[in-house]
């Protein structure tokens, strides 16, 4: 395509601004501050997870040892109570009574030792349970923070997506007003040049590559019919000559 009205070329700059806005919004979604907040919250939970797992495991082991110690004490106590009941009944012989008394004495000592072990595990378990409770509370708080961070991220992302959808509608409407072959050329050039297809001529400088046109190229561009589509010799982008009264449009680039 070699020609297009100046009005249509100027609309390409408007279309470019909308496409640039869409690119910016896509980038914005990738760098939302809420993403860092979610990552930070997840990092805190990950940092605590090892300590929490170790504490849970230790608490479980201590609980198991305490349960075993309690069972050992109960077993000796049951046997001790049984022997004492036989002695108290008076139905055993003197020989058996002597044996029972000796066993009761040994069982009493044994129970005392087992109760010390039980008490040790109980104290350690209670102390560790307290520490575990604090870790669990800290983890619960972090998980709540993560939920809030994710909710904030979802809201922020949704706002950008909503804005993007509105820009797409505006972009599609504008593109529909421009000749299809001119839009096709613009899209092709834009795809080849990092998303920038149409740029204004700002004084003697290309609004795309920012390079100054040499006097010969500048004279050629300025003397060309206004409906002629001209391209930058350096970056190949569509170079739109913006009338003085519409110079504000060029300032956007």
Query: How many DSSP-defined strands?
Result: 4
* Radius of gyration, in angstroms, nearest whole number: 42 Å
Average pLDDT score: 92
Number of helices: 6
Provide the succession of SSEs: HHHHEEHEEH
Q: What is the assembly state of the chains in this entry?
A: single chain
What order do the strands of the largest sheet run in, or round the barrel if closed? Answer: 2-1-4-3
Q: In percent, how helical is the residue content?
A: over 70%
Content of β-strand = under 5%
| Secondary-structure content class | mainly alpha
Instruction: Report, as a whole number of angstroms, the end-to-end distance.
Output: 24 Å
The largest pleated sheet is described as: 4 strands, mixed
Q: Rough shape?
A: rod-shaped
| Poorly predicted tracts of residues | none
Compact overview of the structure:
The protein has 253 residues and is mainly alpha-helical. It has helices at residues 6-30, 33-89, 94-177, 180-192, 215-223, 247-251, and strands spanning 198-202, 205-206, 230-231, 238-240. Helix 1 packs antiparallel against helix 3 (94-177).
């Amino acid at each position: 395509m070699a020609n297009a009205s100046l009005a249509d070329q100027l609309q390409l700059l408007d279309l470019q601004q909308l496409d640039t806005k869409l690119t910016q919004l896509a980038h914005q979604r990738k760098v939302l501050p809420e993403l860092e907040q979610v990552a930070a919250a997840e990092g805190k939970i990950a940092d605590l997870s090892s300590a929490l797992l170790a504490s849970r495991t230790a608490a479980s082991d201590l609980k198991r040892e305490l349960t075993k110690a309690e069972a050992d004490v109960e077993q000796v106590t049951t046997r001790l109570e049984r022997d004492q009941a036989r002695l108290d009944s008076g139905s055993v012989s003197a020989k058996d009574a002597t044996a029972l008394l000796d066993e009761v004495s040994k069982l009493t000592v044994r129970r005392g030792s087992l109760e010390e072990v039980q008490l040790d595990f109980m104290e350690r378990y209670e102390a560790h349970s307290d520490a575990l409770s604090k870790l669990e509370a800290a983890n619960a708080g972090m998980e709540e923070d993560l939920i809030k961070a994710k909710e904030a991220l979802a809201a922020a992302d949704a706002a950008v997506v909503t804005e993007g959808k509105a820009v797409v509608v505006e972009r599609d409407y504008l593109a529909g007003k421009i000749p299809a072959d001119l839009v096709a050329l613009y899209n092709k050039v834009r795809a080849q040049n990092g998303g920038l297809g149409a740029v204004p001529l700002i004084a003697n400088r290309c609004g795309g590559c920012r390079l100054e046109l040499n006097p010969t190229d500048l004279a050629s561009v300025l003397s060309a019919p206004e409906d002629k589509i001209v391209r930058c010799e350096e970056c190949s982008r569509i170079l739109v000559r913006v009338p003085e009264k519409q110079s504000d449009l060029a300032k956007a680039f």
